[in-house]
Design a protein that fits this description.
Shape of chain A: globular
Helix content of chain A: 40-55%
Number of helices of chain B: 16
Strand content of chain A: under 5%
Largest interface: A-B, 66 and 60 residues
Strand order of the largest sheet of chain B: 2-3-4-5
Distance between the termini of chain A: 18 Å
Radius of gyration of chain B: 25 Å
Strand content of chain B: 15-25%
Structural class of chain B: alpha+beta
Oligomer: heterodimer
Distance between the termini of chain B: 23 Å
Largest sheet of chain B: 4 strands, antiparallel
Number of helices of chain A: 13
Largest sheet of chain A: 2 strands, antiparallel
């Protein structure tokens, strides 16, 4: 089983990939491998490389653990988010490249689990446990000292889901599950599909998905608010408010973006609520539009400025697109 | 020195009174357009809107462009009002003429230059806007106590203070904010003490205006306006979110023509055209060839503006360059001469408006030791960045002109940053306790670098000096670059000389 927390319950080896996407992914992987030769790599890229190999080759051929051991390990043997050379891509980023994050630990753990399903590392679980905060969240404050009020919700929920997965895999612990359940149930609903998706993942891990029904109505509202004609956005543009003052932002020139990742999140949230034909209809529109134009991925724009504000197409967008396409034919 | 002129009459003749142009502000692309008529008088013209609305404004047939006026247009380009979008015509702005600035010398500078353009027919309104949260604690509360003779009356219930609330009040009450008391208490405070707060602020503003050397005529006004508590800017009781404006009255509906002047000046110096695209601006020759020539060594050895806190740098010659060094600083290569051409003067104004150096530091450096003298500039448009870098290159070697650059993104676009991170499979990790430090997630910074280089191709030469994305402030994404304090010690004296030397020959005594 190769499912990754980003694509919960999806066996990537069984996903059929569009031929146009195969070529794009192959080329992306080639470029990554060339960068790795120069010592430039991020843990996030390793993960994308692994997922691409699982999709295309149904197995890993690249020695990703070797990449970690050579380029992404601290002196203490902990997995880092970035190599030294990768950090140099930013001017004067200096020692800040050395980040041991929940994400880098999870990526390293995931790759190890693919190789050996019985993999366990007490050093990793110890460090992860030390990332636990009294508030209930997991993060490394040495990487980011930002107080929780200002941390992004999806960062917190994603890290929680990752930590939960690893720690429960090490030891089935009812007390730990109860702790996670209590924490999740007291966290207010966010305005972001991604954050709610990862909340759902955590609930899945601790077998407490019944909680979802208590927030079903609000989640349905969020799903509809984030829906667009041909897919889903992670957030409703109209919901942007100032953190402090609560005043609505002027969003006349902000456009919502259909993302395959968000559309997949929407589908999975909807299914956890028992399904919804309206949501399914939008997902189908997404699938149809990508079938007729496999590269119809969009990027944000900064108001009226023409250049893309960030990427349109990435491996994760393609993976999510192909998962959605396969789910529709199940 | 007169470097060119604004040809009002010739322009209106050639263009048949039509004024139109494009403007990009806050990454919003909008147009402005207006039809004017004019009547020729002796030595002047009277300009008015063809539809008869607005004021009839007397302008000279042509107006000399000297360094001061060019610099003022640069300042206005940064701090001046660009107008608001026409509700009935999306994408079209209706420019008004007003100027946001608090620093007294700059306010006086603007005041004098508005008079230079429009003469005595105009009147001024000096306004001070503040978040009424300012009066809830600290200095503001102290002023309120003084006003009431020692004790501020207890806040009454909102229903008593404002029995009939309006739509904006309702909106305010519905907003959720992280503040000590409830919205209705703060709204009651606002209405109960509004008159008192306005009087305190308008008196304070009037004092500042007069101390700045501005003589108010009977037509000029000083007013204050209060925003509901925490509505914009102030986050804690006692917090301030002050905005100072200088509104120009008597020039209603002439905003399009005024904005056109600025654009034509800017584009003609950018393109180095002797005559601007629509003929409004005519320089004495190609802009890059005209202006006062400054001998750098002499300037920093002798001129009153060429010193910082009474000290002067050492300068020696090495081949085609000067090597300059301020005490406590490092060597730097400088061109032997600098031409204070229209570009230099325009950029001087632009930097005064939009540069990150505290204005007070620029005025204080002549009589106090220089601190906070770093050079930083933020913009979401390439033109401004290009002009500033070209200006710096006229003084320094190109490698010195930019040390590092970054992208600042306001909270309105944090959700976008998160999605960009999700596309790369990473969470957005912020920096600093309040999250407005350097973004820790390198992938997101790298993902936005191409956007910045597309928006500001001027930075391509400095591509490798991109440092990070910084989630800070509230608004759009913009590009911020900085140069070293070594550069600023040389640039700022020249900047101040270009803008102020005519009006203030002796900076040590007059600033």
């Amino acid at each position: 089983m190769t499912n990754h927390i980003f694509y919960n319950d999806v066996n990537l080896e069984k996903i059929q990939v569009l031929s146009e996407h195969k070529k794009w992914l192959d080329q992306w992987l080639e470029r990554l491998l060339a960068s790795i030769e120069d010592g430039e790599v991020a843990a996030s890229q390793c993960l994308q490389g692994v997922l691409i190999e699982l999709l295309l080759n149904k197995s890993m051929k690249v020695d990703w653990l070797g990449v970690f051991n050579n380029l992404l390990m601290t002196n203490e043997g902990l997995p880092m988010a970035y190599s030294l050379a990768y950090g140099k891509k930013l001017h004067k980023f200096d020692a800040q490249y050395e980040q041991v994050t929940v994400h880098s630990i999870h990526t390293f753990w995931y790759i190890n689990k693919l190789i050996d399903s019985k993999f366990s590392d007490s050093k990793l679980t110890k460090v992860l446990s030390e990332f636990w905060q009294p508030s209930g969240w997991y993060y490394n404050p040495q990487v980011s000292i930002t107080t929780e009020r200002y941390r992004m919700r999806v960062e917190l929920f994603m890290s929680l889901a990752m930590a939960t997965e690893i720690l429960l895999d090490t030891e089935e612990n009812e007390a730990f599950k109860t702790k996670i359940e209590a924490h999740i149930m007291t966290e207010p609903q966010t305005n972001y599909l991604s954050a709610e998706y990862f909340r759902l993942v955590s609930l899945n891990k601790i077998n407490k998905t019944q909680y979802i029904t208590t927030i079903a109505t609000k989640l349905q509202e969020l799903l509809l608010a984030c829906s667009l004609e041909r897919g889903f956005s992670d957030f409703d543009v109209k919901s942007k408010v100032d953190d402090y003052m609560g005043t609505a932002k002027r969003v006349g020139r902000d456009a919502a973006l259909v993302s395959a990742i968000s559309t997949l999140h929407a589908k999975q949230i909807s299914e956890s609520l028992g399904g919804n034909s309206e949501i399914d209809g939008i997902v189908e529109s997404f699938n149809k539009s990508h079938k007729s134009n496999p590269f119809s991925f969009a990027a944000f724009k900064m108001r009226d400025l023409d250049p893309d504000f960030g990427p349109s197409i990435t491996p994760h967008e393609i993976i999510a697109t192909n998962i959605l396409s396969n789910l529709s034919t199940y | 020195m007169v470097l060119g002129k604004i040809n009002f009459l010739d322009f209106l003749k050639i263009q048949h009174g039509k004024v139109t142009g494009k403007i990009v502000t806050d990454a919003k692309l909008r147009t402005y357009l207006a039809d004017y008529k004019y009547v020729e008088n002796d030595g002047s013209i009277t300009v008015y809107r063809a539809d008869g609305t607005g004021d009839r404004v007397k302008l000279p047939k042509s107006l000399d462009l000297d360094e001061s006026l060019i610099a003022f247009l640069g300042i206005y380009s940064g701090d001046g009002a660009k107008g608001s979008e026409d509700k009935n015509n999306k994408g079209v702005i209706r420019p008004t003429i007003s100027f946001s600035q608090r620093e007294p010398h700059l306010v006086k500078f603007a005041f004098d230059n508005f008079r230079k353009i429009f003469g005595d027919q105009i009147r001024f309104t000096f306004s001070l806007g503040e978040d009424s949260a300012y009066f809830l604690d600290g200095e503001g509360l102290k002023l309120l106590r003084e006003y009431y003779g020692g004790t501020v009356p207890d806040t009454l219930p909102l229903a008593e203070v404002k029995p009939k609330i309006n739509e904006k009040d309702e909106q305010y009450l519905a907003e959720i904010r992280n503040v000590p008391l409830s919205n209705d208490v703060y709204l009651a405070f606002y209405y109960q003490h509004k008159k008192a707060m306005e009087e305190i602020l308008s008196q304070s503003k009037k004092k500042e205006v007069l101390e700045g050397g501005i003589a108010l005529s009977e037509n000029d006004k000083v007013v204050a306006s209060l925003r509901r508590p925490f509505k914009k800017g102030a986050r804690l009781p006692g917090g301030s979110s002050r905005s100072d404006e200088l509104h120009v009255g008597g020039v209603g509906k002439i905003g399009e023509l005024f904005i056109k002047i600025i654009h034509e000046v800017e584009n003609s110096v950018l393109q180095d055209d002797e005559v601007s695209e629509s003929g409004l601006i005519q320089w004495n020759a190609k802009p890059s060839t005209i202006g006062q020539k400054i001998n750098i060594a002499e300037f920093f050895q002798e001129d009153p503006y060429g010193q910082i806190n009474g000290k002067r740098p050492s300068i020696k010659t090495e081949a085609h360059w000067l090597i300059g060094k301020w005490n406590g600083s490092r060597d730097i290569k400088l061109h032997k001469e600098v031409l204070l051409d229209p570009l230099f003067n325009y950029v001087a104004g632009l930097y005064l408006a939009e540069g990150s150096t505290p204005k007070s530091s620029l005025f204080a450096m002549y009589s106090h030791s220089a601190s906070g003298l770093n050079l930083g500039f933020t913009s979401s448009e390439d033109i401004s960045l290009q002009l500033l870098i070209r200006c710096l290159r006229s003084i320094f070697d190109k490698d010195e002109c930019l040390t590092t650059w970054k992208i600042k993104v306001g909270s309105q676009y944090f959700p976008e940053l998160v999605v960009i991170g999700l596309k790369e499979g990473v969470p957005m990790l912020r920096g600093g306790a309040s999250g407005d430090g350097k973004l820790r997630t390198i992938e997101i910074s790298l993902a936005l670098k191409p956007w910045a280089l597309d928006v500001a191709p001027t930075l391509l030469e400095y591509e490798d000096r991109f440092s990070h994305v910084e989630p800070t402030g509230a608004g759009l994404a913009r590009i911020d670059f900085s140069a070293s304090s070594t550069v600023s010690r040389w640039y700022f004296p020249l900047l101040m000389y270009a803008v102020f030397s005519e009006a203030y020959p002796n900076p040590v005594e007059e600033f």
